[in-house]
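Quick one, probably user error.
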């Protein structure tokens, strides 16, 4: 049995019932919320292991809920899977930039949603090799065990995915990684790869790193690499 707690946020009761039933059958503990306001209250009262968040909500919409979650120290690290309608590409991109870990479009297969949830939770639980080895490269310090990053001595707050990408690239400076390799290493081979999904994460990562963002180099037509120090 899975055992993790999952908060499902959707204003459609039939969606809540469908998703809740399938997750409960797999052993997950379920919390339900019909609005953004209730979702924020629930996420602070009982910190869930993952949030399934519909974007189209009455009152506070899904993107605003996500912003508030990522600004709260209690909820900032909760992985989030977005539920979106077809044609909401701009909102999906915004959600990923805000720190969402994955998304799935309606109508969706419960089996695919379960696979996405397992993949996100698996990434959360996987141990990084030699967690105590701190990476010092250029003027960056990356601590895998603490999942902390400092740039020029200043702490940098990264999402789970952004940290994984930085750890991957900085761990092998000079190596060129294709977008497919980045997605496979960070999100798993069951994630639908698009150039946009990788590029959005890189843009956000560079912005948060400030002047140190220049160390992530684009290799045109191939992918990305971290600037070699040799």
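Nope, works fine. Designed sequence:
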């Amino acid at each position: 049995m899975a055992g993790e707690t999952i908060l499902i946020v959707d204003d459609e009761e039939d969606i809540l019932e469908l998703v809740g039933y399938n997750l409960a059958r797999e052993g997950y503990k379920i919390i339900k919320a019909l609005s953004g306001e209730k979702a924020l209250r629930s996420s602070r009262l009982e910190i869930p292991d993952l949030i399934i968040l519909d974007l189209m909500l009455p009152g506070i919409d899904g993107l605003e809920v996500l912003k508030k979650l990522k600004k709260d120290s209690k909820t900032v690290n909760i992985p989030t899977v977005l539920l979106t309608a077809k044609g909401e590409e701009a909102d999906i991109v915004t959600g990923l930039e805000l720190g969402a870990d994955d998304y799935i479009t309606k109508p969706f297969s419960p089996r695919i949603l379960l696979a996405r949830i397992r993949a996100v939770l698996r990434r959360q639980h996987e141990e990084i090799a030699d967690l105590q080895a701190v990476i010092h490269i250029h003027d960056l310090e990356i601590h895998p065990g603490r999942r902390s990053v400092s740039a020029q001595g200043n702490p940098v707050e990264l999402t789970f995915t952004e940290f994984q990408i930085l750890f991957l690239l900085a761990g092998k400076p000079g190596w060129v990684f294709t977008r497919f390799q980045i997605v496979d290493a960070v999100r798993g081979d069951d994630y639908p790869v698009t150039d946009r999904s990788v590029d959005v994460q890189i843009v956000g990562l560079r912005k948060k790193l400030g002047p140190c963002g220049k160390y992530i180099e684009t290799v045109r037509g191939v992918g990305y690499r971290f600037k070699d120090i040799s």
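The longest strand covers residues 80-85.
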